[in-house]
Amino acid sequence: MNWSSIEQNWKQVRLNVKAKWEKLSDEDLDAINGRRERLEKKIQTRYGFAPEYISEEVDNWLRWQYARPAEFGASRYALRP
Asked: Is-contact 42 31, C-beta < 8 A?
C-alpha cells in the first residue's frame, strides 16, 4: 500500500492508525485527514518521539498495512484445496 492509498481511504485506515497509536484522539485523526506529515507531527506531539524514529515507525506501519491479509483471520500463505 502506498501513501496515496492511505489518503484516499482515510476513513477506513484511520481505525488502523488508532490501533497503532492509541494516544491519537478522534480530533487528531480528523485533523490528519490522511496526510503523512500531519500524522508524524501528531505522533511527535502525543508521544514525544524523535522525528527520525517516527518516520521509521510510520514506514514500518505502512509496510504492515500492505502485508495484512485481505480477510480477518485469513493468511496470504494458506494452502488452498
From this structure: yes
Please tell me which residue, 76 or 30, carries the higher pLDDT value.
30
Considering only CA atoms, give the Rg of the chain: 14
State how many domains the chain has.
1
pLDDT of residue 67: 62
**Domain interval for residue 43:** 3-65
pTM over 0.85: no
Sequential DSSP letters for 24-48: --HHHHHHHTT-HHHHHHHHHHHH-
CATH number at residue 9: 1.10.1470.10
Q: Is residue 73 part of a domain?
A: no
Q: How many CA atoms lie within 13 A of 20 on its CB side?
A: 18
Q: Is 1 exposed, middle or buried (0-12, 13-18, 19+ CB in 10 A)?
A: middle
Amino acid at residue number 14: R
